[in-house]
ABC-2 type transport system permease protein (Limnospira platensis NIES-46), 266 residues
Amino acid sequence: MLVVFSNIIAIYRKELQGYFASPLAYAIAGIFWLLTGYFLIAILLGPDGLIQQVALRDQMGLTEPPIDLSYEFLQVFLRLMGTISLFVLPMLSMGLYAEERKRGTLELLATSPITNWGVATGKLLGVITFYSTMILPLFVLQAIALSVSSPPMSPGIMIVSHLGLILLAAGVLSLGMFISSLTDSTLLSAIGTFALVLFLWVVDIIGQAVGGPLGDALSHLSLISNYTNLVQGVIEIRSLVLFGSYVVLGVFLTAQSIDAFRFQRS
């Protein structure tokens, strides 16, 4: 067991070092920070921002319904971050295995003593860690902005909300890793992952249109509805199970894909 854990850590460190040495990864992170930073300022301080809306309500003497400014800001901003991540995450996962195929190193991984699921787990942990470092500065900015709010926001809500964002990312990245293992084209991998994630993002709408037991089943697969629950600070077991299932499914399918690749080469 210790050997397996050591192998996973070795793959994790290699993958993480690869991201921090990649100009493309820095470009993706820069665009992500630029967009989210702009919207953070716009949501709070823009002409139609939340602070301006609250000030206008006060001038008009409106007190009902009351507005929890800090909570409203967190909801709007994290939903927006989730939407932006829909475009960013496929670009982070597209090279996990596609680059290995292109460089001809996938066969070495497939035939190495490390199990396929161990390699997949290490790679997934690496890209999740890199994404977490991308959202860390934004978490700090939000904490600074909300520290002056009255009444103060519970730290638990912020932690659960951002945990939901990381779980969303983990599920998407795991599925994207599987798609990356199917092709040597990073572009096709990114497009395929985006298409799959877009379907899972809007499947709730499809479920409502279908109705009945099938519609309910489709709605339970929705990324957005389960993500929204966590963003609201509500921990629901079904949401945790769903994201965990996507992570496990992605790792499992990736391991099977590499097994099939090894079989073809043998």
Notes: The chain has one domain: 2-21+68-265. The chain has a mean pLDDT of 86. DSSP finds twelve helices and no strands in the chain.
